[in-house]
Amino acid sequence: MALSSRRRYRAVDYWPGFVDALSTLLLVIIFLLTVFMIAQFLLGREVTGKDTALQRLNAQIEELTELLALERGASRSAKDELTSLQANLGALQTETEKLKADAASGADRARSEGDKASGLAAQLDQQREVSARALSQVDLLNQQIAALRRQIAALEDALNASESRDRESQAKIADLGSRLNVALAQRVQELNRYRSDFFGRLRQILADRPDVRVVGDRFVFQSEVLFETGQADLNEAAKPELDKIATALIELAKEIPPDINWVMRVDGHTDIRPTRGAFPSNWSLSTARAIAVVEYLVQKGVAPQRLLAAGFAEFQPLDTAQNEEAYKRNRRIELKLTER
Q1: How far apart are CA 269 and CA 83, in angstroms?
Q2: Per-residue pLDDT averaged across 204-210, rounded?
């Protein structure tokens, strides 16, 4: 009667479902943080590239602006020189007219002034040549200024196009994050449903074994059920129970859609005391035991890509006390259905 009462009490244990919900929430939060970090990383890399291009464009604009300022200064100097030459030309023309008027007063004076007028005419021709060269330089500078303006306009267009692409990239990243969140939520819900189903099947299969416990979302086998002390070879008595688990896994694999990436994780744990014999450390002993369970399940038809073996040595204890009861609880094999 006491045993029946204990079984009925165990059948209404809601703690695994509560822990299952908490673990699901934690997985969702971790994934959201991962997606957020990836989006931030991609956005940061995209923005860094855009900032580099923008800096190059700004440097080119500053260089062109300086060149434009220099050209404008040279143009102003040429214009000033042209104005001066025109003023000199006007003065020479006035003086020539005056000399022509004076030449009418006498032949002698006309001859002497004629020589002077010839010299002034030569100077006038020279000044005209200088003025023509100055005008040519002004035209060239105007052409260069027009070309610089076209380059600045092209740079502004390129900058606007870059900013537009940056906005489009940010919108795409935001849309990708939203779609990933939706897909993740759907996959988590589906995996949770199958995990709950598998959890219920294992509870039915292992309900009569007092040496198998449920801890959160995991089934815990005491190491003595499966292995001899300090050994990693499975006991013959444990194989029928593992056969039942293998059958449940094979049936579950047929039901879970192939796009859900799930695994059965087998974790090996030891107590704090050092190993003796064939295993140099508790790491090697815990890992060897987990591998032994995985290899046996593979022999029974479970797909190897759906299994994962891990060893934790003595560093994940259930009980931190240092007595035989605590040592016995900490020596264990845990089974957990999870994402890969």
Answers
A1: 98
A2: 60
Instruction: Convert 81-103 to b/e letters by CB count within 10 Å (16 or more is b).
Output: bbeebeeebeebeeeeeebeeeb
Q: What is the pLDDT of residues 142-182, one digit of tens each?
A: 888 888 778 888 877 887 887 777 777 777 776 666 665 65
DSSP 33-93: HHHHHHHHHHHHHHHHHHHHHHHHHHHHHHHHHHHHHHHHHHHHHHHHHHHHHHHHHHHHH
Amino acid identity of residue 104, one-letter, is: A
The pLDDT assigned to 93 comes to: 74
Q: Using CB atoms within 10 A of its CB, is residue 104 exposed (0-12), middle (13-18) or buried (19+)?
A: exposed
Summarised one tens digit per residue, pLDDT across range 300-329 is 999 999 999 999 999 999 999 999 999 999
- Domains along the chain with CATH numbers: 41-184 (1.10.287.1490), 206-339 (3.30.1330.60)
Answer yes or no: are the C-beta atoms of 200 and 214 closer than 8 Å: no
Residue 316 phi, psi (nearest 5): -130, 60
CB contact burial 161-173 (16+ within 10 A = b; e otherwise): eeeeebeebeeeb
Report angle CA 51, 55, 60 to the nearest 5 degrees.
150
Contacting residues for 75 by C-beta, under 8 A, at least 6 apart: 138, 141, 142, 145
Phi and psi at residue 299, to the nearest 5°: -60, -30
What token pair was written down for 99?
Answer: 């000399």
CA torsion, points 194, 196, 200, 201, in degrees to nearest 10? 20
Does residue 12 surpass a pLDDT of 80?
no
